[in-house]
């Protein structure tokens, strides 16, 4: 008997037009992948947006593409989230252009596969700086504006740190910290009208994360019958920013088709930790 395969449904087929009319989104990592799809969905429901990233060319092209696809305005703001000043400058540009920030997606992240024995101190620090410090810097720079609009945060995390996932010590530490920060933000800022939640995507097709992290020939069998689509994450985004989620804060929403309940190690275990060199050689095209 063939397994059921969950449909991929665009948010516009479920949520109403104009849901976010007059609102402004600030999204780090919005130039590509999952965060770009999240931004596009929020824009399709009426918001204007700023996308933040390190690569100006990619950012500028993505902003033009998003504006064309949605009929809304998109500002590309180049910044490395590790540098508080650059993030503050991106926020200032957003306020100068749009006058407000309602929604923030903290999505800028770095990842690669490396065992502890093959990861330098600087490699560990680099990922923690991008994911954890980058999220903190983004919260700090945007919070006065999000308070003013009684807005909402979504932090893009992961599921791999729910268990000991080999080759992911740097990202596990960084994402666990992101989850913890979101909860504190929800508790401290809830009385000011601000909500904060985490989306933890599983494997999402055609993203840099999946192409870097998924091991060749790995069987992927989620209860939902397929790998994730960026639209799955976008739909969770629309719901969490919408008024329908007004009573949801400090939560982690896993968007993985139920995969976390059945997943085994992403890398061959224990061979990959006993012999990292030959495993990494087999991964070369993807690393
Ligand atoms: N394995 C082991 N160490 C690695 C590595 C890998 N595949 N890739 C980077 N590092 C280490 C570097 O060796 C360096 O440490 P060192 O100085 O001790 O040699 C450290 O990480 C910093 O690397 P560098 O390339 O200088 O940092 P960066 O700031 O330019 O970029 C990343 C770091 C993580 C962002 C980079 O890997 C990248 O561009 N990734 C693409 C974005 C991404 O990861 N997207 C997926 C999101 S899920």
UniProtKB/TrEMBL annotation:
Protein name, UniProt field? 2,4-dienoyl-CoA reductase [(3E)-enoyl-CoA-producing]
A Pfam family per the record: adh_short_C2
**GO biological process per UniProt:** fatty acid catabolic process
> What is the reaction catalyzed?
a (2E,4Z)-dienoyl-CoA + NADPH + H(+) = a 4,5-saturated-(3E)-enoyl-CoA + NADP(+); a (2E,4E)-dienoyl-CoA + NADPH + H(+) = a 4,5-saturated-(3E)-enoyl-CoA + NADP(+)
Q: What is the top-level taxon of the source organism?
A: Eukaryota
Q: Does the keyword rRNA processing apply?
A: no
Molecular function as annotated in GO? 2,4-dienoyl-CoA reductase (NADPH) activity
Q: Does the keyword Cell cycle apply?
A: no
Keywords from the named record: NADP, Oxidoreductase
Q: Name one GO cellular component term.
A: peroxisome
**EC number in record:** 1.3.1.124
* Family annotation (CDD domains): TER_DECR_SDR_a (cd05369)
Q: Which InterPro entries match?
A: DECR2-like, NAD(P)-bd_dom_sf, SDR_fam
The enzyme's first-digit EC class, named in words, is oxidoreductase
